[in-house]
Amino acid sequence: MRFLAFPVLVQTLICNQMSLQEKFSLSLVSKRMKMLVKSTYSNIHGVTFGFLRNKIAIYFQDSTIHWKRRRFYIPRNCSSLFYVERMDRSIEHMIYNHNAEGDFSSLILYLWNHIFEIFSKRNNPLKMTVFIDKMNKYLWMPSVGRATFFSFKREEIEDFIGRHSDLKALEIVGEVDLPLTMNSNVFDVRNIRFYISIRKFTDYLKCFRGFHAIFKPYIHVDHVYEFIDEWIRGDYYENLKFVVVYNGNYGFEQVVLDRYEVKKVGDRSHIPDYYPLDDEDLLYLTDQTNPIPSHQAVFIENNAKNKVASIQFNSRVFEFYIWERELIFPLRP
Amino acid sequence: MSVEPEVPIVQVEEVRENPVLYKIISSDNHVFTISEHAVKLSKTLWDLITNLGLTAENALDNPIPVENVNGKNMETIVQFCERHKYDEEEPEYTNYIREFVLPEWDRQLLSIDNEELFQLILATNYLDIQKLMDYCCRVIGDMAKDKTPEELRIIYGIPTDAEDDALERSASDSPGPSG
């Protein structure tokens, strides 16, 4: 088959008929093929490299919920790339052998750079996430946007953040072994998503100098009251914009609002229908880039009367977004 | 057309109304008739018919010459268009998850050698038949299934980076029109 003898449009159409795995294989054939494949991708929002005990797993995030079902992986101490897909049936096969080029580490770095180049658009670099099982299994990568850790030592996470100055999001699953101090660089990351069970989420939030925070899995409603009272008093950093907490045990009920004076908004036409979060923040916070609607929210005001917060919740999720007062309640001319 | 088709000739199930037929002449002077619904699948042919002002009354008296498509490819194309002329429009599919399976009839129609498929795609591209193009591209895309980059290089005849660089160097070293 004389593939390159086809008009470029036809080459592109052929590419569009290929699955992710086939297209990715094609991109590894030559630089020319890499550029062709690059021109046909538009729906990959982010890529996750999982540094696991026995392998490195690579996930491509698209706008569907199925992205976790397909992954590439490289077994440790191996220099071959495999693909596995679990939908209706299991598919698993080797697609690339890097033996001639170098070892395991050089293959990971090669694939990282290759993927970054394929999926980055002009002015919109690919969002790269690392998922770290054990710190000694991690290979230092450039341009990490989000990192997920499992029950790590504080010093390890702080060292990681120090070496990844462009980190935009941090996810910690399980409590950090030592209390985080006020001046820890963990609290300087723009987006955090913490899974906590011992300490209150407000203990973390009071130190947080970033913008957006999500706390899971089961946050007690009393801690939410505490948070709202403290925000009204002005106990949190100015940067704080968006706080989301989950409660799977008891659920949030309407009484959450009974304690507060809700400000009435007559005309809502000037209020955005969605929280003003950009695509990058949305991807790191929610794994998707779909905007989060805010139109059910009610508003409360802080004591300084310079900010208002919108509160919106269902039985499972509580959302708290902080706005400049004038945006919601414009001054009359 | 004297060439025997490799797949059964499509039998048009029914004449839903008095069909308007058009005549097409291939580059090697084979003549084909095609119904109005079928010819509409080719944007190029339908634009031509519209621009020439062909009607039910004068269509058969005015055969349309298509100089870029030979009889063998035209036969496949006419069969395909007659087969799919009443298909409903398919929803758009993403390029990430495959959402259609090539029907068996079409897979059989397109079970031809690589060079023939290559020529058929060029003809399909010229005649602008979206559905046939999608199906042909799927057949070529399927060749990549479970293949390594090295295997793909052979299947698709793709040069290595070194070969591409050498070709580029020789092109830039060659004398220009004035040299």
Automatic annotation (TrEMBL), chain A:
PANTHER family, A to Z: F-BOX ASSOCIATED DOMAIN-CONTAINING PROTEIN-RELATED (PTHR21503:SF8), F-BOX-CONTAINING HYPOTHETICAL PROTEIN C.ELEGANS (PTHR21503)
Pfam families: F-box
PROSITE patterns registered for this protein in UniProt: FBOX
Domain F-box, first and last residues per copy: 1-44
InterPro entries listed in its UniProt record: F-box_dom
UniProt-recorded name of the protein: F-box domain-containing protein
Superkingdom assignment: Eukaryota
From TrEMBL, chain B:
Protein's recorded name: Skp1-related protein
Taxonomic lineage from the root: Eukaryota, Metazoa, Ecdysozoa, Nematoda, Chromadorea
Gene source species: Caenorhabditis latens
Position of the signal peptide: none
Cross-referenced Pfam families: Skp1 (PF01466), Skp1_POZ (PF03931)
Residues in SKP1 component dimerisation domain copies: 130-166
Family of this protein: Belongs to the SKP1 family.
Domain of life where this protein originates: Eukaryota
One biological process term in Gene Ontology: ubiquitin-dependent protein catabolic process
